[in-house]
Amino acid sequence: MKLEAQVELSHMRSYVGLYCKSNNPAQRRVMRLKLQKRSEWKFVSRIIPHKQVLNTPQLAAEISYQSLLWGFIPVILILFFLSGCLRQPDTIKDVRELPQDHASYLKDTAKPIGPLPAETQARIDEDYNIIYFSVWHQRQPFHASPDRVSSLFKKFGRSLGYGENKKKHSMAWIKKLQQNALLDNYPNALHFAITTRHTNLRMLPTQGPHFYKPEGDISGWPFDNLQISSVAANTPIFVCHLSADKSWALVETNFAFGWIPVEDYARVDDSFIKTWESSRYAVIIKDKTSILDAKGNFGIRTSIGQIFPLVNEMTDKLEILIAAADKNNCAVIKQAFVSRQIVAPKPLLLNYHNAIKIANELIDEPYGWGGLYGNRDCSAMTRDFFTPFGIWLPRHSEDQVKEVGTYVDLQGLDPAEKEKIILEKGIPYLSLLWRKGHVMLYIGKQNDRALIFHNAWGLKTIDLSGREGRKIIGKAVITTLYPGNELSNLDPDGLLIKNIAAMSILAPEKQNEQTQQNVIPATKNINGVIPAKAGIQ
């Protein structure tokens, strides 16, 4: 039913209700005149005989409000169904009906992951380590050029946005941040360091947010435009620049650059780097836990995606190194003994058992834009998933698909053709799917339908008035390529399968020979660092 019809019926219910309930002749006359000017007066006349309508003093006694209501019920119910007014379940059908356990789909997965040949995985893992420690082998900013850093201040100067109090930022706000940035003598630091706690890369030197609109979703909370990415504790960094008040540092990591608070890192010297860059490493395999030092004191909080130097292997635990800051803000090395339930030698053997184990650690985690609140967005989840296996991914969702692996173009295909190619060429837990702003992990199939694992904010909806909204998913889930297809108000142009543009297969070429036809080899340079803002449907 068209919007105009819905509005008319709304007026009709209002006027007829007042007409029947009122004992005030003047008010009843006004309601009658309003009804007479509307097309629905004919509809009312079918229920109320015309003479009775004109004989207003007797109408209320002869016709009850309930009898009118029964006449309108069929029309009202139709409107409710068409407009999506009936309350829909809080969770989309895929998440309600598909088991949210990766182990449930093992029997339906035909293609084996591997394991990868030992020499192949060792080579991939070696590449990971080179990229991971690359910031300790540079002397100047590699990605954070003066133009790129200053352009961010210009960008937010043109679009001041709103703060946490829903009030618009003033020009004084951006000018104060720019003065403190002290970019006239950029870069002024140029030293190596390591993060000593979980921190966030920011586009500007402030913890305060920037929203395009004061209210929530997409243009508002939780999408803080100044958030680039979270950075885990004990991540190598290159400090490019210090702010005027010495409280902020512009740093480069192996995957992005941005501003972090000075108290979140400690300086390292050549001796520290030599010890830390050992030939063996351990990787976290249990999400969101903590590590104690050898004396039993709290060391650092950890999550999947972190690596540490490995000193010694024992039956039930590993001896690793962790870093902390001394009173002079210099990094010192401590020993820690960690259960094999939490940490494993890197790289972890890539097979279905281990893939499922890591994926189940990440499932159901709340969505975290740019890593806010210690959670992950879509590209952070895929990036951290592959870390235990020694596979390095960029931070940005588009780069993950276009710069790593074998690129399969899916643009211009209808949904059925896309799904067929994904099922034929995709390797479960080794293939990424991408649509603009969102990346997903292909995990196999059930009943000949492709399944994906992704951390998604929500699905775009449109109501009858044309207003855009979101059906919130808000966590890491297993779905088909048609999540939310059952929603009556789902934006037809927002259906996920329609917008999937590409697939990247991360398997080595020999294991991926069946995908080599009609595919485009990805670029070899995968160390392209750009501020990452991904993970929205």
Query: Taking strands numbered 1, 2, ... along the chain, how are they ordered across the largest sheet?
Result: 19-18-17-16-20-15-21
Low-confidence stretches: 1-10, 37-69, 513-537
Structural class: alpha+beta
Helix content estimate: 25-40%
Shape: globular
> Helix tally?
16
Tell me the radius of gyration: 30 Å
The number of distinct β-strands equals 21
Task: Estimate the strand proportion.
Answer: 15-25%
Our measurement of the CA-to-CA distance between the termini, rounded to an integer number of angstroms, reads 28 Å
User: What does the main sheet amount to?
Assistant: 7 strands, antiparallel
Oligomer: single chain
What integer is the average pLDDT?
84
Overview of this structure, please?
It contains 16 helices and 21 strands. Residues 1-10, 37-69 and 513-537 have low confidence and may be disordered. It has a seven-stranded antiparallel β-sheet. A five-stranded antiparallel β-sheet has the order 6-5-4-1-7, with no helix packed on it. It has a five-stranded antiparallel β-sheet with strand order 13-12-11-8-14. 39% of the residues are buried. With 537 residues, it is an alpha+beta fold.
TL;DR?
With about 525 residues, the protein is α+β, with helices and mostly antiparallel strands. It contains 16 helices and 21 strands.
Set down the secondary structure blueprint.
Elements: H1 3-21, H2 25-36, H3 40-47, H4 50-54, H5 56-62, H6 65-83, H7 93-97, H8 118-132, H9 146-158, H10 171-181, E1 191-195, E2 199-202, E3 227-231, E4 236-242, E5 248-252, E6 257-261, E7 265-267, H11 270-276, E8 281-284, E9 289-292, E10 298-302, E11 307-313, E12 317-325, E13 331-339, E14 343-345, H12 352-362, H13 378-386, H14 397-402, E15 406-409, H15 415-425, E16 431-435, E17 438-446, E18 449-462, E19 468-479, H16 496-499, E20 502-505, E21 520-521
Antiparallel strand pairs: 1-4, 1-7, 2-3, 4-5, 5-6, 8-11, 8-14, 9-10, 11-12, 12-13, 15-20, 15-21, 16-17, 16-20, 17-18, 18-19
Helix pairs in contact: 1-2, 1-6
